[in-house]
Amino acid sequence: MAADLDNVDRKILRVLQTSGRASNVELAGQVHLSAPQCFRRVRSLEERGVIRGYAAQVDAEALGLAVTAYVNVSIAGDQFGRVREIEAQIRAYPQILECQGVSGDYDYLLKVVARDLKSLSTFLTDRLMQVPGIDDVRSMICLEEIKPPSPLPVEP
Hints:
Layout: H1 7-18, H2 24-31, H3 35-47, E1 67-75, H4 83-92, E2 96-101, E3 108-114, H5 117-126, E4 134-141
Antiparallel strand pairs: 1-3, 1-4, 2-3
Helix pairs in contact: 1-2, 2-3
């Protein structure tokens, strides 16, 4: 369900997605509001869950995480009663950056980071494939990032 957003809310979201560290005064100037009005708008967007949080974008390679892989995961047919437990275990692994439930031949698509191919293999074999209920795991190694994560399109 899309949130009711007016043009000012959309301007605020566009600015915050690219300049999350902007002060309230800077943000207010960019969206042409008073600082108190801007503060109330941002607080409302946060309370309504439109803004989910704020975070620094950290370069994975700077942390020694040189390998990114997308991993398809299937759950065994008789294990669907445990799906929420399996999802909880997936959420607990810090090297899994994203998990999407998908349609098609697999149940989930994971974005995974690792130091190198050996550590990715170890994670997949010794951790992920050992989760009770996971039936099949297929990975694709990313060779090059063509477009980094981008702000969501906030259209009027």
